[in-house]
Design a protein that fits this description.
Length: 307
């Protein structure tokens, strides 16, 4: 039974959906047909998150049974690199140890985004999915510690998730820095092909392959059309009709079809509200010390993140 030999572990809202799609184009790479199984974060656990629609979403999104997880890779044939992308792996405690136990020689890929921008994009993501109860980003940040205390899922940890230094340092300690390939969101956005070819070299596959990078994936924003928003919400929520057809459609195909429909409708129906300069400046100050330590850890100049 096949297990992955590499993982895209984060960070959430840093371009991991695009990276997943681009990697899947390479003839020597097999990507799980279902993105974000988050198996290593929740293996064998009974999940009881308490945020809006957390329970329904986690039942739909998460694979925590070993046999079901291995089945994701049944389609692999002659590919030398076999992987999946679950961007919460970087943040969720205990995940590094589970990965080490199951696939001790795994190679890990990380994409990091300016944490002040990542936090806002995360907020927009939850607004887009009609789950965020606060209309203003500042109100959601003010409510974050209460949400964490009440066991809302990590998707609601807008600010806390952006303190990357300790998260990444832990993976370096568990796996060794040589097994962790770290990139920036800016690299993936503005030097896309070069960044992908660097990742290909890290994975030991043909680095001359040039993927099609013309499509944008997983855009954030708020809905323009109420009708399209309602269709999007329906696809994400359980109901009697969808429950009735479940036995006749394999789980992996079901998830893949819904994900494609949701993504297509969602991305055609988004606008981006303004992001307050004062709010962003405050977040940058809150992250400044962590960014300084991260610079030393990964050997990259992150001065643009501190402006």
């Amino acid at each position: 039974m096949t297990m992955p030999n590499f993982l895209v572990i984060g960070a959430a809202k840093s371009g991991t959906t695009a990276l997943y799609k681009y990697l899947g184009q390479h003839p020597d790479i097999y990507m799980s047909p279902y993105k974000e199984p988050h198996f290593f974060a929740f293996e064998g656990e009974s999940l009881d998150f308490r945020g809006p629609r957390d329970r329904a979403m986690m039942r739909y999104m998460t694979i925590n049974a070993p046999d079901e997880y291995r089945a994701l890779f049944d389609g692999a044939t002659n590919e030398s690199a076999i992987g999946e992308a679950s961007p919460m792996y970087l943040y969720l405690p205990g995940t590094a140890e589970r990965i080490k136990r199951h696939v001790p020689d795994a190679k890990l890929i990380v994409v990091l985004r300016n944490p002040a921008d990542r936090a806002y994009s995360n907020f927009l993501h939850m607004v887009r999915d009609d789950r965020e109860p606060c209309a203003e980003f500042s109100a959601a940040l003010d409510d974050e510690e209460r949400r964490i205390a009440e066991n809302w899922y990590a998707s609601w940890h807008y600010k806390r998730m952006g303190f990357y230094y300790e998260q990444l340092k832990h993976y370096f300690e568990v796996f060794g820095a040589e097994r962790v390939s770290v990139h920036l969101h800016e690299d993936l956005n503005f030097e896309t092909v070069e960044t992908l070819q660097d990742i290909f070299r890290f994975l030991g596959v043909d680095d001359t392959f040039t993927p099609d990078v013309s499509v944008r994936y997983n855009e954030s924003g708020v809905h323009k059309s109420k009708s399209l928003k309602n269709i999007h919400t329906y696809l994400l929520k359980p109901d009697a009709v969808k429950s009735a057809v479940k036995p006749f459609i394999p789980l992996r195909l079901r998830r893949s079809v819904i994900a494609s429909l949701v993504g297509g409708i969602r991305n055609k129906n988004l606008v981006k509200p303004l992001y307050s300069d004062d709010m962003r400046k405050q977040l940058v100050e809150d992250y400044r010390e962590d960014i300084l330590k991260l610079e030393g850890l990964i050997g990259r100049d992150l001065s643009a993140w501190k402006k």
